[in-house]
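ok trying again, last paste got cut off:
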Amino acid sequence: MSYRVFWQQVLALALPVAFQSALVSALGMADVLMVGHLGSEAVAAVGLSAKLNFVLILVMAALGTGCSILVAQYFGAGRPEKVRQTLILSLIVGMAVMLPFTLLILFQAENLIRFGTGDPVVIELGGRYLTLLGLTLFTTQAIIVYESAMRSIGRTGWPLKYAMVAIGLNVLMNYWFINGGLGVPAMGVTGAAVATVLARVIQIGWIAWDVQRTETLRLDRDALASLRGSTLPARFGRLTWPLVLNFTLWSVGSLGYHLIAGQMGTVPLAVMSLLAPIEGLYHSLFFGLVNACGIMIGQRLGRDQFAEAAWLANRFLAFAPIGSFMLGLVILAISPLMLSLMHITDAETTRQTQWAMVVMCLGFWIKVFNMTAIQGILRAGGDSRFCLGMDMVALWMVGLPLTWIAAFIWELPFTLVYAMVLSEEVIKALGVGWRVRRGYWLANLAEPEDRVLAQAEPAA
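nice, full thing came through this time. structure:
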């Protein structure tokens, strides 16, 4: 493959996804910005609730990733009926998985918030916010699965158009419901959650309407009935259970960093809440590149083009971290402007946030390397069990223990405690770099009877 063709395919697949992901991250930042004038307690409540919700988002993403892997390979192998079966199976499993979590949040929201803080104001505000977010779990799961399938067949622009409208409505309703007006009382933090619920309902309704008019992804009784006696559910289960376990344990561990900050005080918790959407915006710009990597490699693995898949992997592993580091320098240069837009009322919160941003911008390129290796390469070839083991060792045996020791044994300043999070990424990078070079991920996941000799051209 020439570099010209490479970049044409990368840009066609990556730009819409990166833009959409950046919009989602900007929405998270908007929630923080719009409640910033209500005080550090409001910021901490929104940030902690969003982090708890993020744990479930990653569980949803695991099922979406499993759907994406199989859809990309089946689409690459020219099997549209298998694409439809995978999509409907992913939706059914996703609804079943989200049911107990929805009930837990609806009835135990304040108790969940208490894990992260002892501040009664934060607990009350966060409990109301999180309860309303619990109403969005089913719709968010369906949105993630649909978007994963769309991207895997090369329709990366579709999720973008849905997200642009939904996020625009969300921001407008955020301002309206938080501050009140036109007959609506000011609801503060609760208003941000109400806006999210309404925006998600509109988004999933539009997606479902469009998909039912699309041949490749349209769901019908035949697709559901064909799952009976099929080997696809078992194959989907073998592929996704390590992903679900991996994403769940990783997200809980990631929440652990937030909880450590919460036990250090309201200011560190507020700093983590302020950094979360900035970090999300930073990495969202490379999520599109990682997504393009997974789709391009997955489609070639589905056609048994292993040499080209390896060539692609090497290029992505080189370009992604370099671009990330350069972006980090840009964000660091404009960080004073970003902080001024947040209208933080507490000087100590502002100071600690600025220093933490230095750590983030100079060190998080290694996270992008790991994202590319794990999500874009290893999982595209079904090497999910290694990713599970690597994540668990790096997070639970290195990152979290060192961060806890730095906070409560060594009693280091928060900036240095925050820097300890990168110890997880260093260990992980060593492991996944070795695994990519070994080539275990170069595999076609389709069963022999599902493959065809006439292969389809790449979607982009």
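cool. Residues 451-460 have pLDDT under 50 and may be disordered. Residues 177 and 184 are 7 Å apart (CA to CA).
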